[in-house]
Input
Amino acid sequence: MRYGLVLFTSDRGLTPAAAAAAAERHGFDSFYVPEHTHMPIEREAAHPRTGDTSLPDDRYARTLDPWVSLAMAAAVTSRIGLGTAVAIPVEHDPIALAKTIASLDHLSGGRVRLGVGFGWNTDELADHGVPLGRRRTMLREYLESMRSLWSDTEAHYEGEFVNFRPSWAWPKPAQGKSIPIIVGAAGTDKNLAWIVRSADGWMTTPGERDIAESVLRLRTLWSDAGRAGQPEIVVLDAAPKGEKFDRWRELGVTEVLYGIPDKSDAEVHAYLARLAEKLAQRS
Output
């Protein structure tokens, strides 16, 4: 299994560049950041963790742009993977977003992983013109169209939400014909079936611990659909405790992610050193 870190970026605290450099120095395999373009003050959407419209962290309103953050991280690292946990593609123009992601992958030497979500904050989505009840279809078209731009010499797409004529678009991703796409969502049958059709793997939601049934279900659906290989399984973990690592290895979990605390630089660096030591013992 790989081990990575998630920095809930904001306009305070440790910068993405400093955090990524520290992560690489301590031997972590990947570095992820989230995305929220803005946070409507009056909302109807309930936060998955609080169960109502209250937010568990003020950084939801202070989040940095993920692609600027990862570009800064790429400039000061050479090995560590760079990803989103998670980005919301439907809040962007897909042609421009495909260019941004491919450019980052090209410049970083093929280190980008695209974690995406359907978007729990439907009020935020509405401000971007995403129709209520159509966010899944819209995301599927975005991913399909971006894959065409990444892989085809003459890219084109015709859909309900995305349409463009045969076009040239470079750079292509350095790592191949596409960028690995991981969907962050609850492990329901509906979500797992969507992943099998449109993505390369599953990222658990925070607090989701008993994942065995969902992982086995995903593998069954994957095989039944004729997908080659195995899906990526990325787990968001709170702390490296207990005997769960052996079970996760048996299940085929490919990556485990830990959040970076919103504390002083010195406290964060000390935390990363302790975490890296604990994970080395687990390995």
Remarks:
- DSSP finds nine helices and ten strands in the chain.
- The chain has a mean pLDDT of 96.
